[in-house]
Amino acid sequence: MPAFHQPRSLRPDLDRLWQRLGRPAAAAIAASAAGLIFIEVIVLIVWGADTGSSTSPGSALRVGADLWLVAHGTTLHLSDGEIALRPLGLALFPLIAALSAAHRHASLVPWPTARTAGPPGPAGASVAGASVAGASAAGRAASAAGAGPRLWRRVVVDIVEVVTAQTLFVVLVALLVRSGPVRAGLGSAALGTVVVALPAATIGALAGRHRLRAAWRRLPGSLRIALRCGVSGFAALIAAAAFGVALVIAATLPEVAGTERDLDVGVLGGVGLAVAQIAIIPNVVLWALAYALGPGFHVGSGLVRADAVHVVNAPDLPVLASLPPSALPRVGWPLLVLVPLVAGLVCALMAHRATAGRRSRERLATVGLAGLVCGLLCGLACQESLGQVGAAGQYGPAAAWACGLLAGGEIAAVGLVLLGGIDLAVRRAERPFLPTDAEPSFWRRRLAPVVRSRPAPWTSRRPD
C-alpha cells in the first residue's frame, strides 16, 4: 500500500492536547474541588448537628458552595442587599489550589530543550570532520542562547493555563448555584479568582520549573533589598496588630464567651462557629491595623476609631464582642504609635545590614523605596479585608488608601531618621581630629556676648 494511503494515528495529537490543555485543567480543577469538598463537609456537619433545622441537604450544600464562592471574591446578591466580604482565612483555599496546580503541572511538563548533535567521530577524524564538529558546536551554543526566551514563555503559558482553568471552574460553579435565592455575580467570581490565583500560580510555576531563584536574581540588587525590607516591615505591622488583637480578646474573654453561650449552637454548631471566626480573624487583624494607624474601621453603619467609637447593630459573632466600648484614653495613644515604630525599626535594621558599605544616598533611597513597598502591601491588604454584608453597610478599614499612605510614610520616616543618624554617627567617628575642632563652633561664636574693650586714653605724641 502506498505511504499516502496509510491511516494516520491520532494518539500523538491526543497526547499533545492532553499535555497542553488537559493536564493543567485537571490539576487546577482537582485542587479547587478539594477546597469545595472540605467546606461542604464542614457545612454538612453543622447542618446535621442542628436537629431543629427544617432545611434540606440541598440547601446546606448550596450554602457551602456560596461560602466557597465568597472565598474566591464572588459577590452574592440577596433580596435585601449583597455579601461582598471575602473572609481572608478562606482565601487560603484558592491560593493553595493555584499554587499546587501550577507547581504540579510545571514539574511534570519537561523543558523545551534544544536538539543535541550526534555522537562524536573517532580520534583520527579528518579536517572536514573537525570543521563539521565545530559548526555543530556553534549551532548548539546558538540554540542554547535562544532557548532562554522559550523557557520563560513556557512558564507564562503554565501560569495562563492554570489560572484560566481555575477561573472557568469557579464561574461554572457560580452558574450552577445561580438559580436559587442567592445569585452569584459572574464578573466578580472571575475577577476575584484571577486576583488571587495569578500571584500564587506564578510562584508555583517558577518553583516547579526550578526558576524561582533565577527570576529573583534577574531583578536589580537595590530593588531586591527594597522588596525584602518592605515585606519585612509589612510583616512586622501584621505581627504587631495580631499581638494587639490577641491581647484584646484575652482581656474581653468573658464577653466573648457570654455571646457564644447566648447563641446556644451546641457542640458541633460551636465547631462551625469556631471555623467561621477563624476564617474572619485575618480580616479583624487588618481592621486592628487600620485602628492603630488612625483611619479606623467600619462595623456596619458604625465607626471604630481611637478617638470615637460608634457601633450600631453589630453581628452576633462572638469575636466582635471584643470591640472597644468607648474611645481610647489619650494615655494609651502612645501604644498605637509603637506599631509603625517597631515596623520602621525592623525595616531600617534590615536595610542597614543589606546596604552596608554603600553610599548614604543609596541607603536612604533604599529605605524610601521599602516604605513605598510596605505602604502598597498594606493598602492592598486593607482593601481586600473590606466588604459589605447585607444592607447594614461596610465592614473593614475606613480608607484603605489612607492606611497604605500612613503605613508607608511612617515606616519610611522612621527608617530615614534611624539610618541617617547611623550614617551621620559613623561619618563623625571616622573623620580625623583637626585642630579646628577645638575651636568654638560658628553659632557659639555668634551667640557669645560681645566684650567691648575700653578705648585707651588719648596721649599726645608731641614732645614737650
Structure description:
- Helix 3 packs antiparallel against helix 4 (127-176), helix 3 packs across helix 5 (186-208) and helix 10 (333-354) packs across helix 11.
- The protein is mainly alpha-helical.
- Helices cover 66% and strands 5% of the residues.
- Strand 4 (297-300) and strand 5 (302-304) form a beta hairpin.
- The chain has helices at residues 11-49, 57-71, 92-108, 127-176, 186-208, 212-217, 221-251, 253-263, 266-293, 333-354, 360-384, 400-430, 442-447, and strands spanning 76-78, 81-83, 183-184, 297-300, 302-304, 309-310, 387-390, 394-397.
- The longest helix is centred in the first third of the chain and has 50 residues, at 127-176.
- The protein has 2 domains: 15-113 and 149-218, no CATH class; 219-431, no CATH class.
- The protein is flat and about 120 Å long.
- The protein is built from 13 helices and 8 strands.
- It starts with 10 loop residues before the first helix and ends in a 17-residue tail after the last helix.
- It has an 8-stranded antiparallel β-sheet with strand order 3-1-2-7-8-4-5-6.
Please describe the biggest sheet, giving its number of strands, its sense, and whether it closes into a barrel.
8 strands, antiparallel
The N- and C-terminal alpha carbons lie at a distance of 152 Å
Structural class: mainly alpha
In terms of per-residue confidence, which ranges show pLDDT below 50 for 5 or more consecutive residues?
Answer: 114-147
Q: Bin the strand percentage.
A: 5-15%
Strand order of the largest sheet: 3-1-2-7-8-4-5-6
